[in-house]
DNA sequence: TTATCATATTAGAAAATTCTAATATGTTTA
DNA sequence: TAAACATATTAGAATTTTCTAATATGATAA
């Protein structure tokens, strides 16, 4: 029963757990963009980016709408940035701590 | 260059993106426990749990120490719960919104 | 020191993810 | 309508993840 929330959480986190997908979120931080702009920014294959966009959309993290021949993507809810920013914070702190240790070692 | 932080973030998130590993964090929320208690609580194979513990430890999320024949695991930094709790929050809100939509549909 | 207990590691099969290349779909323009 | 453009989908190979079963390691107790 509570199993469900662990499973859903794991799926959500899995959708975020790829460098390209994190980059996509970063690119879409403040603006809605068409696929063409996104994969141009990433310098990756169109079909590859399309697949990553789908993962994020399936998870409800992105939404899309058609505008003429283009499909525009945007972040559905800015809350996702709470998560990715927090992760960044934790990692940066970890890196600093490691560095401090190494410096002490150097004495 | 900035690629590195995306890669590190993705690795961190990937370590979290498995139901069993989220359950382990939940079990270790407020206490340090030996492997025997952890896999008993999870009702999973010892070797399987041991492998999941390793993933979390390799990522720096858990730490362990020997106590006699036992190995005790604990969460290294409670910050990780900011992340998993935030995910839970987002998912619960999503579920509620979906439910609201379904109820409106029912009119 | 041998047996036992607790945990980790390894091997290998099955499943899932990721990427590229090719193709399909839907839109606009000529 | 045909050609060109934007995006999605599919197929298939390579890689990674996950699990189970078996074995190894290391600590304690007999």
From TrEMBL, chains A, B:
Pfam families in alphabetical order: HTH_5
Keywords on record: DNA-binding, Transcription, Transcription regulation
**Name of the protein:** Transcriptional regulator
- In terms of superkingdom, the source organism counts as Bacteria
Organism in which the protein naturally occurs: Thermohalobacter berrensis
The segment(s) forming the HTH arsR-type domain are 1-95
Molecular functions (GO terms): DNA binding; DNA-binding transcription factor activity
């Amino acid at each position: 029963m509570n199993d469900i929330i662990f499973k859903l959480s794991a799926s959500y986190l899995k959708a975020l757990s790829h460098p390209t997908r994190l980059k996509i979120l970063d690119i879409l931080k403040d603006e809605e963009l068409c696929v063409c702009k996104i994969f141009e920014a990433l310098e990756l294959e169109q079909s590859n980016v399309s697949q990553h966009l789908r993962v994020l959309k399936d998870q409800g993290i992105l939404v899309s709408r058609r505008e003429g021949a283009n499909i525009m993507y945007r972040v559905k809810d800015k809350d996702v940035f709470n998560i990715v920013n927090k992760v960044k914070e934790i990692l940066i702190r970890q890196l600093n701590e490691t560095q401090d240790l190494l410096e002490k070692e150097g004495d």
